[in-house]
# Entry
Amino acid sequence: MKNLAALCLLLFSTFVFGLTAPKPIDRITVAVNPILPPYVFTGDGTGLQLEILKSAFKSQGITDLDIIYMTNKRTAQSLQDMTVDVAMNYGDAITSNIFPSKSLLSYNNVAISLKKNNYKINTIYDLSGKSVLSFQNATEFLPAPFKAVSAKLDSYGEMTNSEALVEHLLKERVNVVILDKRIFQYYLEQYKKSGSIQAYTMHPIFPEAPRPAYFNSKVLQEVFDMGLAHIIASGEYSAIMAFDGSDYAQVVD
# Structure
């Protein structure tokens, strides 16, 4: 009887340990938006965010990263479902099972209009009466008043392809686009290669937006944060961030 009780205790302990033991840090799966230069370049897995991520992990001895490209909405769902380990852009509410890192960098979202229209856009509310296009899931990423205002615009839409946003503005298909400043600069440089551009005005109506990475493992998030602190202290981080959107446009096809 004592032997049976001991065996049951051993089996129970093994079962519990199997549920609670941390996942070994081996191959890390990272979900990123595929259309996000200069933060992410799909072709060779480079760009500001990916270089920071890889360098931070590398400083902690982790180099086996599996980069998977998907939309922002699918990224959030995949992180919640634990089919990926890290999400580079996550617009859903933070729950007890999602762990944001320290900020890798900040996005600088701006409203952009053609200069000749002479729009006075000093606040989110000044978008009223205009046709506006923005990046996918913008109503979740941008400050709360934007979501309310977006429902009252002359027209409002979101696009997964940021390059198309730039084209829509320059071809006067829309009054205003909302996009990160570096992303706009990158695609503007690309557009210059095949077409003429018009003068534009950037309206800084949004605060800078810190961009952490998001994890479904607290242990992995803490390892990453240690790596991020290390590359900041060593100067490697500053070297990566020396590029802006126009710089990347000149050196990366």
In short: The first strand starts at residue 28 and ends at 32. The chain has two domains: 24-105+212-246, 109-203. The two ends are 73 Å apart (CA to CA). The longest helix spans residues 2-20.
